Structure formats: structure tokens, C-alpha cells
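Forum: Protein Structure Q&A
Topic: Joint prediction for protein chains with partners

I've read a bunch of threads here and the consensus seems to be that you should model interacting components together rather than docking separate models afterwards. I'd like to see that in practice. Below is the full input, 1004 residues plus whatever partners are listed. Could one of the regulars post the assembled result?
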Amino acid sequence: MNRVIETEAGDQSPGPAGKPAEKLATGPIVAPVADIALLLEGTYPYVRGGVSSWVHQIISALPEIRFAVVFIGSDPSMYGPVQYQYPANVTHVETHYLLRQDRHGKPGARAGNRRAFAQMDSLHEYLRRGGEIPGKEMMDAFTRLGSANGISQEDFLYSRASWEYITEQYRQRCTEPSFVDYFWAVRAMHAPLFVLARIAAGLPPVRAVHAISTGYAGLLGSMIRLRREIPFVLTEHGIYTKERKIDLAQATWLHDHNDDVCNTLHDEMGYIRGLWIRFYEQIGRMAYGQASPIVSLYEGNRQRQIADGAAPERTRVITNGISLERYRAALERRPETVPPVLGLVGRVVPIKDIKTFIRTLRILVNRRPDIQGWIVGPEDEDQLYVTECKELATSLGLNDNVKFLGFQNVLDILPQLGLMVLTSISEALPLVVLEAFASGLPCLATDVGSCRELIEGRSEEDRALGAAGSVVPIADPQGTAEAALELLNDAGRWRQAQQAGLARVARYYDDKLMFSSYRNLYMETLAPGSSGTSGFSENAGCTVTHPV
Amino acid sequence: MAGIGFEIRKILERDSYWSVIRAYGYAGMVSGGPWVLSILSIMMIGVLAVTLGVGQREVNAFQICVTYLMAASLIWTGGMQLMFTRFVADRTYADDKAEVLPNLFGVLMFTMAGGFALAAPFIFWFFTGPFIQQLLLLCNFVVLSGMWIGLIFLSGMKAYRRIVWTLAKGYLLGIAVGLAASQWKLNGLLLGVLVGHSYLLFSFLHHIVREYPGNGLLKFDFLDRKRSFYSLFAVGTLYYLAVWVDKFIFWFVPYTSEAVIGPLRASIIYDLPIFLAYLFILPGMAVFLVTMEADFAEQHDRFYRAVREGDTLMHIEHRRDRMVYAARQGIYEIFKVQGLTVVLCLLWGRDLLHAVGISPLYIHLFYIDVVAVSVQVLLMAILNVLFYLDARREVLIITGCFFLTNLLFTFATLHLGAESFGYGFAASVTVSAFLGLFILSHKFNRLEYETFMLQN
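Posted by a regular:
Agreed with the consensus. Here's the joint model:
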């Protein structure tokens, strides 16, 4: 079964046995096409980046496990060609787009199933209350989605029943004037669910699913778990719900209709913006309700998952790791003396707060004119911000000291740096810190994500290894500059930090550790008797009868 | 709201009976004007020509020729009139105005050259008269086809005042030339209308070319299926077929008709009353224009603005109600005014026919025709509302019904005998108007649902 089968949303391409995929899922005894189906939203294999390379690493490192890759994108126009060569253990590939508009048929008046919409109301009631949703309720809702005697996509889009339900909800709840905004928000929110229901129905048999985020991938995981009673593993790198909230808080495509007459300084969030946020919160909650285990990269995110509704006993931390061999060469090429060069390795975007880095350098250069600051990373994401940063450097008179190097091979850059600096205002578990440690480079980082854990250690034993640099406050050039000087001017301290970093990365962040954690996790999950019915499903209040 | 509605509003705001009469008089002129002016001037040429010594037979032949030319050119261009009006509206909405002029020439080319190719073999084959007569008929047909396009285009631009003014001048010119050339009998009269209509065609074009920018000379984008609605073509053609089909039946059934010239036949009993009756739609047409263009159009615009610009659902529904009210009020007003006209015709019809020297034998047919054309005004108002709502399928159903019922009912009256003549047309218009009302009411009831849920 080494053949890779590529299918697209809605296609009835034959599965490996030459039958339509839908048939495969319902047939009584059919060999699974893969052990683990990876549910990937907007990342691997189409978009390069941290999460994608992590996925590729995991697949490559576990050749004994067969993977199915299920990519969920928004619109085909947003993705280029596949960016990775699939390892041999990828045995099935599916690509789906949530916002593709061309498969709904021509609009035509239809009555729609009023009863099905009325039943939807009770699920919405649970969602609004924000508590645990009974598995049966969710199961029923998923079964109704897209089915002929439930709510088909055409029913949702064109039916009279759907119209009546939407307008009734608007009358009861929406506090905003614009009906057309509300209407399109509801449409945009629900349209992907029908695609997900089709994916869940059409996916050939696999033994377990593994979503690499909550959101639509997580929701798909919940659907498949409930339909097929197979285990659902969830790994979160960042926290999807939080990222979506940040996006939505800034989204300019949403208009908040604030009352101009009694407008106060702290304007309230618009109803529709709130609706979107609740939507992502709730689909996140659904995924937490169905997934086990729920993996995060570091303790901070585990706590956040628990706060967002994940059962603590199902959460666990598996940190990211890197290949130490890869950076040994960089370590060996490190010069005797510490280069007076601060490096910021990352995309030039506001979330990395490049400006604080530049201001820090101004202060440093005042004290030691030989100090350099290198900004290493692609500059194509936010042109305006890049320009602003360059202008800032010029206006501070730092043209000789600050260099924008663009995208570079990190292995070449690392030996030339004296300190790795992260001024980010948000991070999860930044790999550059691990890379710096592995190549013998201490780090300065803001207190975001797992940076403090990485620099100071997370357990007693870990902390005993010493600090591998310093943690600095967010947006504080003065503090950052002081911390940098302390390390650069004191060779003894610098060496100490270097040794602590080397020891920490070797002991806790070797990718072999990560691979073996996932190997164990998959083995546990795939072990006979660990099917979805045992253990956690009762917690979710779910009595699953065989759905398919 | 632009154009005529605004002008009428201004007159009405002066708030006196005189201003009301002026407003409706004005509206009547611009809406019923083309129709009435052409009937009147053809009649006038006839009457004056007789006094100038042209034989009654020649005058009859002339009037029949012009009637056929009008009917044929309207049916031939009706589809294109509607389809092209919509094409122009869409291009204007898309801010693509420069596309319009070359396409207008495209449409003119299509209808005039096509009309020539269609009519020439027919005329040269069936008309045995002198070549000059055949040529005059052919030219008249081609020019009329072009003129309807120009007229509908100017109506779309809401240049009503200009239309009426130009029409008055054109028909006066036609009458003058016709009379001056009356010594050549039929040919002279035909030359008169040809000159009049040519003048109209070129004045319309002159006005359009001056107002519209163009980015080319000739384009045929209006035939593009993606940019045009062929259903509108069907509606336009069907509508004119429906309006004329009963006349054609009476013309070509031997015992109600007689041959007049070449293959053209006329029905003495049927034709005159109906053409007279059409003169009495002016009051209804005036109300139609005022209520539809001024009141309904404004409410319609407000409704869609509420939808587009993000109003509350309650407000959108309120706007819908106001729009429905405006439509209902408009139809009701037409009903009232046209009803009064019918009553007056019933009271004074006999005297009227007597006054213009028409046999009182026609009186019953005249009565029922006045009722029928009055209902036709209602039907036009209903179709107009449906056009505003872009209900192309519904309009097609109604015009289809109009055509089929007129065909069937008219044949039925031929079997029922002379007593029932005219009732076929009247029943057909009435059935179609009721169907229209029913469909319109259904459409209004689910307007928001269709607006939001069924858009492409």
C-alpha cells in the first residue's frame, strides 16, 4: 500500500480497492489505508514553516507508521504546489478546500427540513452557554450535516427553512444593525462545516486521526472520531483559538457598529466579531472534548488548553526538538572570541517587534560602538513594516551597525553571532532558541511562550543546569541592552550560559526524544483496546453507537 | 430617482389642481405619447389625403401598410429592445459606459440589416406593385426597426421630454411630406412616413451619440450569453406577438377580412375599434408613469439600499412593506383612473363614434376593446414592477400566458360568432393580468428570502 492516492474535495475518486472512497468507509472489513491520518489546516504540505517542517520531521522519523495526509485549505488560489517530497510511509493524500464556491449547484428555491433546523437550535443553545456539549448532541448534529434527511448544503444555502431560522436567530439575538453582515457571517461560518462533513464521510479507513491544531482540523477530528469510534489525537503548536482572537480583534473586514451617540472610550466589541470568536472557541472546545491526548509544546500552553476547556488528565506536554548533529558543525566553527554581533532570526513582522531590537542596538552602540545587529529573515510578508524598520534604523543613525540580511542559511549565520535575541511579543516554542543553544550561542528572549522555560529551565533538575542567557521584558530596549551587555562584557558568564544551553538542549530538546514520545503516543493510541469507545468518550457524555 | 419622476414631483409640489393636471398631462404625453402620436398622425394623413383628392382605397391601403409595418417591426425588434435595454443598464452600472455606443451600432446593424434581409425577399416576392413601392415598404420597415431601438434607448435614458418633442416634430414632418407628395398616391404617403420616421431615427441617434462616449464603432457584445439575458429577448418578442396575434387572426381568417394590397389583408370590423380604443389609454399611462417612475422606483431603490448598506432586518422588512404599498397603490390608481375612463367611454362612446363618423355597429366591439386595453395598462404596470424586481422567469411566464391565451381565445371567438369578437383579447389580457397579480404577490411575499438566499 505504498501508492499515494490524491483526492480533492467532493471527488469520488476510487480508493485503493478501486471502489469509491465513500464505500470504503462503510464496508465491513477493509484494510485501513494508513495508521494515522494527519489533519492539517493550512500547513503541510503546501505551506512551508515551523509546523510544516515539524510534520515532515515526524513522518520521516517514524517510518514504521503509515500516514495519511489530509490537507484542509481555504481557497485553492492561496496555495502553490506541494512543498515537500512525501516520505515512503505516506500512503494516502487528500486535499480539500473549505471556501471553494463552485460545488453548490445553482441557487433554487426549496423548502428545507424545518425539523432539522429546529434540532440545530438545541446545539446552538449548548454552544451559547459555552459548557460541555453532550457527545450525543454533537453526534446528532454531525450526522445531520450534509445528509439528505438532515440539512444538506443546498438546504442551508437556499432553503426557506434555513432563511426562517437565520432571521429568527437574528431577531432574537443580534444587537447590531446590519442584517447583511450578520447573514454573510453566518454563511461563511457554516459553509466549511459541510465540506468537513464530506471529508469525514469520504476519508478511507484509518486507525486513528491526529489533528495538528484545533479549528477546522480539530473539528474534523471530532467528526471522524464520533462517526468511526477511532482515536483522535490533538497536538497544538500555537493556540489556534488565541491566534484567531488576535486576528479577529484586528480584522478590518468586520465593521463594529458602535452607537455614535453614546459611544464611550472603551468601545464594545461588535456582535458579529463576538460571534466569530465564540465560533472558534466552541469548535476548539468540541475538539478538546473529543481528543485524547491533547498535546502542547510547553507547560504554559497546557494551562491555556485547560483554561479553554481541555480536561487536565488528557493533556500532556511534548516539547519540540532539533537534530543536535545538524548544529554540531556550527558549534565547531564558533570562533574563540565572542563576536560582538546580536542576531535576530525571524520574519520581519510586527509580532517579532523588530523595532525594539533596533532601539536596543542604539543604546548598545552608544556604549560599545563595535556592536552589530543582524536581522536575518524573509522580508516579503509585511512590506510596510519592513520599510518602517529600515527607516527607524536610518533615523537612529544605525546604518553601519544594523544589517537586514534577508533569508539566510541559519547554519552559516549562527557561528558569526555572539548572542541570539528574540524581542517577540508572542511565541510558542521558538526553534531558533534551540538552534542557538545547539550551536553554542546564548539567548536573550522576551518572557513569552516557553522562552523562560528554555532559558532558565522548566523543572528543578532543568534549572540546575543554569541560565542559558537572560529573559527580558517585552518592548524594553533599555532592559534588553543591559542584559546584552552583561553577557557580552563578561566572558565568564557568557561561557556559563553557553554550557547551560548546550546541556539543556542535549538533555531535553533532542529531536530523538520528541520522536520517541510520538512513537510511544502512537503505539498507545493504536494498541488494541484503545479505540475511541474506551475511557475518555464517557467523560464526554457520549454513548456512541456505530455511526457508519 | 431621476428623470421624469423628479420633474413630475416638482410640478406636483406646487400643490394646485392645475399643477396636478399639468403633471399628469405631461406624464400622459411622455408615456402614451409615442403610441398615440403615431396612431393619430397616420389617421390624420389619411383624413387629409382624402380631402386632397387621394382615393379612399389608396388611403386604406396606406393605413394597412403602415399598420403591418408597425406590427412587423415591433415584433422583429421587441426582443432586442428589452435585451439591449438591460445590457445598457448593466454596462452603466458596471461603469462601462464606453461599451454602450459601439454596441448600439451593433444592435442597429443587427436589427436593420437583419430586417432588410428578412423583409426584402418577402416584399419582392409577394408585392406585385411597382419597384418603387416595394422599395418604399422595405425602407420603411428597416427605418422603423432602427427607430424603435433608438426610442427605447432614449426611454432608458429617461429623456422623455426630448422624445415627445422629437416625435411631434417628426410626425408633423411626415404629415407635411406625405401631403406634399400626395399626387403620387400610396407611394407619396409612404414616402411621408418614411421621411418622418427617418427624421426620428436620426434625431434620436444624434442625441444619443452626443450624450454617450464610445470606445469603438461597432461591437456585438450584447449577443454574448454571459452579458445578456436571452430570456428578455423571448419576453420582448412574446409580448408584441401577444399584442398582435388576435389582429393577425382576424386579418387572415377569410370571413372576417378582405385583401387590401398584395398579401396584406384587413379586418374592417375588427381593426378600427381597437385602434380607437388605444387612444383611451392615455390617462392610465399617465398614472402608470407617475406612480411607477416616481413612487415605486423610489421605494424600490430604498429597499435595495437598505439591503446593500446593512440595515436591520426589521428596517429591510419595513422598506419591503413600503415598496409593496407603493406598487399596490400604483396598480390601484391605474385601476381607478382607467376604470373611470372606461365608464366615460361607455357613457359617451356612441356619441363619440357618431362624431367621428364611424358606424354605431362597431359600438360593442369598441366597448370591450376599451376595457381590454385598460386592463393591458394594468398588465404593463405589473410587468414593469416585475422587471424592477428582475423577475425574468416570471415575466416570461406571464407574457407566454398572454400570447397563448390571446391565440386560443381569439380562435374561440371566431367560432362563437360576431357577438363575441373582441372578448378573446379582453379575456386574455384579464387572465394574464390576474396571473401577473398572483405572481407579483407571491414574489413580494418572499422577496427578502429570494434577495438574500437565492442570489448568484
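Residues 63 and 116 of chain A are 45 Å apart (CA to CA).
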